[in-house]
Amino acid sequence: MMQMINDEIQKRNSDIATTIWFDSWRYEREKYSLMIPLLRTIILSLHEVINSTSIGNEKKATLLWVLV
Amino acid sequence: MGTGVNLGAEAGTSGGKVSAGLTLDFAKILNEFSSEGQVHVNQEKIYFHKHVSDYLRKELEGIKDKHRLVIFIDDLDRCTPEGALEILESIKTFFDIEGIIYVIGMDPSTIDSIIQVKYDKNPKISGLDYMQKIVQLPCPIPVWSGEDLRRTITEIVNETRLPKDITDKMLKQEIKDLIINSAKSNPRNIKRFVNSLVLSYSTSGKNIQDIYNENLRNYIIENYLKGMIAIQTFYFRGEKWLRFLKMINNYHERIDS
After folding, report:
1. Whole-model pTM?
2. Are B228 and B178 members of one domain?
3. What's the domain range around B211?
4. Between residues 4 and 23 of chain A, which touch chain B (CB distance below 8 Å)?
5. Is the ipTM above a cut-off of 0.85?
6. How far apart are CA B146 and CA B180, in angstroms?
7. Looking at the domain assignment, is residue B24 inside a domain?
8. Chain A residues with CB inside 8 Å of B62's CB?
9. Radius of gyration of chain A (CA)
10. Which of B134, B166, B188 is the last residue of a domain?
């Protein structure tokens, strides 16, 4: 069902929404915290969104600063 | 602001590097994110937002009117109760940010065990109460109807490479209903069950195909199928079932030789 919702959003609303899939069980053995891979996934996707939308270079630069 | 911190490295690893090539401890960074907004790495003081959620909030500020991040967190019930609770608590406390929508997939029957971890078996707090504070739109998955399950069996069986006369037998209404009852109407169990039947045919059922008399062959196939379902349902699960198949195989090989 989750996959169906994901497919539907990508099909109909890809211009206004970005979907991120996080299989929490894959990171079950993460040494410190499950939130770390989740945050990393979110930030990477946010980076892609900002790169693919018409946001100013200044914004991109701020994000890159965090990602470098 | 000082040196940048790498939160964007390959997902699933705990380490990271600053631009100067130094390795950072992400857990330590996150702790410090929530406290002082700075961290010391090899005697170098690095500044950043006070909490990583502040950073996300700020970055989303510019795009939230135009764009949404929809985050699917799947199989949360397969994590340990501690891990699942950590994700739920973090979403509720820090990452409830405008512009981010979370879709959480989990078996509601596991919520109570998660809550027990937090509230130390306090009977006054139920898992459902807790989830109602976090989830704005619960969406229970509807129970599959018998017709849906029968259609699923047809699809799975048709994908197998078994001979047509055998799949035709497997697709008989009474056999399908037997499978549905045996698998307790659970689609995942049904798939496992059918795969297991296919495996049994591919191994111990091979001799049936050599029987010349078609009537006898059909009789054996049908009863063999029912027998296999009955045996698997009542006596064998998981490894026991595989051991049983191996035993039958060995038996056939001894008879053949």
Report:
1. 0.57
2. yes
3. 146-256
4. 5-6, 9, 16-23
5. no
6. 8
7. yes
8. 50, 55, 59
9. 14
10. B134
- Nearest chain B CA: its distance from A33 CA (Å): 7
Orientation angle between helical segments A35-52 and B26-33, nearest 10 degrees: 80
d(CA A24, CA B88): 12
Domain final residue pick, B50, B70, B90: B50
Residue B124 sits in the same domain as residue B152: no
Residue B166 belongs to a domain: yes
Tens-digit pLDDT profile for residues A6-63: 888 888 887 788 888 888 888 877 766 777 888 888 878 777 777 765 544 544 444 4
Scored b (16 or more CB within 10 A) or e, B106-121 reads beeebbeebbbeeeee
Q: CB-CB: which of B9, B30, B68 is closest to A33?
A: B30
Smallest CA-to-CA distance from B48 within B18, B86, B11, B90 is with B18
Contact A47 B6 (CB under 8 A): no
Residue A34 carries which side chain, given as an amino acid letter? L
B141 found inside a domain: no
What ranges do the domains of chain A cover?
2-67
As for how many domains chain B has, the answer is: 3
